[in-house]
Fold:
Amino acid sequence: MVDLNTVSPKDPAKRYYLALGLEGSANKLGVGIIKHPFLPETGAAAKDNSHDCHVEILANIRDTYVTPPGEGFLPRDTARHHRNWCVRLIKRALLEAGVRDACAELDVICFTRGPGMGAPLHSVALVARTCSLMWQVPLVGVNHCVGHIEMGREITKAKNPVVLYVSGGNTQVIAYSDHRYRIFGETLDVAVGNCLDRFARTLKIPNAPSPGYNIEQLASQCKNKETLVELPYTVKGMDLSMSGILAYIDSLAKDLFRGNKANKVLFDKKTGNTKVTVEDLCYSLQENLFAMLVEITERAMAHVNADQVLIVGGVGSNARLQEMMALMCHDRARGRVHATDERFCIDNGVMIAQAGLLQYRMGNYVKDLSETVVTQKFRTDEVYVSWRN
Amino acid sequence: MTTKTARPAALDHTLTLNVPFETPRQALIASQVLQPDPILKPQDFAVSYAAQGPCLEARFCGRDARVLRVGVSSVIDSLKTIIESLDELDQTGPSSTEASM
Amino acid sequence: MDRPYAVYESPDIPSKKFTVVPGNPRYETTDGVTTRPSDHVLNAGQIDRDKPSEPKREADGSEQFTKLSQLRMNLTGLQDDINEFLTEQMDVAKAKKAKLDSLEQDARIEEEINGLLDGKDDD
Structure:
């Protein structure tokens, strides 16, 4: 039994909670403001309703740090972006949400404590601390991944799905059990979004707006879908590895650009004609990586006897990944796949507000600012999920 | 800050920064916001903050100019962000003098 | 409101004071010269669209900047002074050391500074 009303709304007469969420763990800076109505049925008598809070999104603003095509983002430049934009974005979000007196109206300020890049995380945490002190509003430090999961559950109303978390920095298969989001399988080296982004860099195409987006666009133009370029398939038990695949396809792309006719995968042995296009490479890479993701997700479903999958994270907005996952789910006892669109898939402040507000409503918030130190490594299963049965 | 290896009198490059705010409350907020973050290399660098009236004093000690260059600039970056937050988002206004939390 | 200042002391330099020079444009901007984007992206053709926000003006209709905005601008100039001075001091220290060490050090120091700026952990 979970009582989501452990803490009363700031103004009991208003009968709702208002939360500000700040996200800055990677190259996206997000500010969100959400409202949870005070539902008496989520009181002591209720069961687990944490996936159905009747959230209302009052503001969801995002600004992405963009680098020139072919360049990765350095933590120090990303931190500078967040530092220089954070206050302006908060001002805009408060205005959009109609919050005139943050001090009187906000119940809680939620910020990403990790995992992610240290310097950008720190820039945003500083602003969160300052706002908390000057408005006298409590703080909650949120695990970025738990933010994705809770936002996905709330939007799709999936009660207890197996979660596939795929982004530029993370690749994890997660299932809930006994107050923890437990990691069933994960990447042993690079994240799937990072793998796609790094290949995009090799192709000199931009990484905006989300990891792998431009690869997806090229892949959809592939005219040769029957003949896949063979790539290593590296599932290891519940885990997977992608660095070898990336190195191999990078070398193929470089040979293709260089016109290295000695490469028989790319060029016809006799005529020397090109057999493979950039679009074919993108398509094959996606098919290969996504098949691996579907395989480990299916195995996790079998383990926990689940029939639902929730895909979260920036790569989760990829239509082909959603399609492949849906096929698998359908084959398995008419299961369902849930995904959100890019407003929630891509890093945002609203998801931090959602997970943080759930935690706040359970009475679990920062008592001393020493608890707000950010951490680059913060595993999903470190968080005690008090708001679920 | 605890130091793992005892290297007495090594941190002999110092910089003291004095930042006058409008009110004691603002100086106190700034010191409370800066305080929690650990120093990356305590054996090479140390920093302490003190709010005295409306002034914040930050005192940095480093092994050499190099660690000071990085540490001081990063704290000033943080200070500029805190000041911008107070400037743009504080509804209490400078007339308020009560200390917070 | 007074202006911010800083004092540097080291075995080589007994005391060096950094103060705001009123009227000097260096202390009347939020966009410092030593806090621009990294050379890494600038050399790749980056246009800086992430400059710090403009200073805020008083609500009373006077063209005055708020006290806090003035402080932020003063600190920006002071930060540039301190950064430039400490970089010089690093070069002095480096020149001294160069006689003993190989020039390999330079690259290592540069890399270490960048590492620290990026918030790299020791591990």
Summary: Residues 16-154+347-382 of chain A form a domain with the Nucleotidyltransferase; domain 5 fold (CATH 3.30.420.40). Chain A is about 40% helix and 20% strand.
